[in-house]
Design goal:
Layout: H1 2-10, H2 23-47, H3 53-73, H4 77-96, H5 99-104, H6 110-121, H7 128-147, H8 149-152, H9 163-167, H10 182-196, H11 200-207
Helix pairs in contact: 2-3, 2-10, 2-11, 7-10
Length: about 220
């Protein structure tokens, strides 16, 4: 059941009829658009200018498409399962952070506990740091989309990303996974792309929006 939900929402697992097959492409396209804007902003900042408005529109289009996809595949049973899974994760974090458990494993935090258990019980330590980075940066991206519905709307004239926030390194700190700033989004995108090893050529090709036509009905 959990695998079916992962496939429905994230496109992970069996490629069934309800699998979210578009997510990977939409996700990469949005991250590429943000990364491209960040690079243009860095160059413009060095020269005392501003990045082009076209880049903002590319982010708006890519972000709107990604948000719509996540919303379409995250309703109903998927939402209920996500709430239950969130509760289970919080319980596990509390358990693995218990002082006695940390002391037993000689660990300073729950991540070291996980690494040790994985090494002893599953024949080798998994790359905990990599998956932790992906989890955190992915949560920041989704939270940012959730707080930017007005800016992402088709008729909006408001900038999607604040150049001042990015250049000023404005961050939400402890609230970063709940209400991230535009700077937090840029840093999360950079972290995701670094960990996954996406090439510059891929970034440039994916940063451009694709205007998809309505799919044909199948008889």
């Amino acid at each position: 059941e959990r695998r079916a939900i992962y496939g429905k929402v994230l496109g992970i697992g069996d490629d069934g009829e309800t699998s979210n097959r578009e997510l990977h492409d939409l996700w990469t396209r949005f991250l590429s658009a943000v990364a491209s804007f960040a690079r243009q902003n860095a160059v413009a900042n060095a020269s005392g200018s501003s990045p082009g408005a076209a880049s903002q529109e590319e982010i708006r289009k890519a972000g709107r498409d990604l948000a719509a996809n996540l919303s379409r595949h995250g309703y109903g049973i998927a939402y209920i399962a996500a709430r239950e899974l969130q509760t289970q994760i919080r319980d596990m974090i509390g358990l693995l952070s218990d002082r006695e458990i940390l002391s037993t494993h000689g660990a300073s935090d729950l991540w070291q506990v996980i690494e040790q258990i994985a090494s002893k019980e599953f024949g080798g330590a998994r790359n905990v740091a990599r998956y932790r980075s992906l989890s955190t940066s992915g949560a920041i991206v989704i939270a940012w989309l959730a707080t930017k519905s007005d800016e992402l709307s088709r008729g909006s004239l408001r900038p999607v990303l604040s150049v001042d926030d990015i250049r000023g390194h404005v961050t939400r700190g402890a609230e970063v996974t709940a209400a991230p700033s535009d700077y937090d989004l840029v840093k999360a995108v950079e972290e995701w792309l670094l960990v996954t090893g996406v090439s510059d050529d891929t970034l440039e090709s994916r940063a451009q929006p694709r205007w998809r036509t309505r799919p044909r009905a199948h008889l």
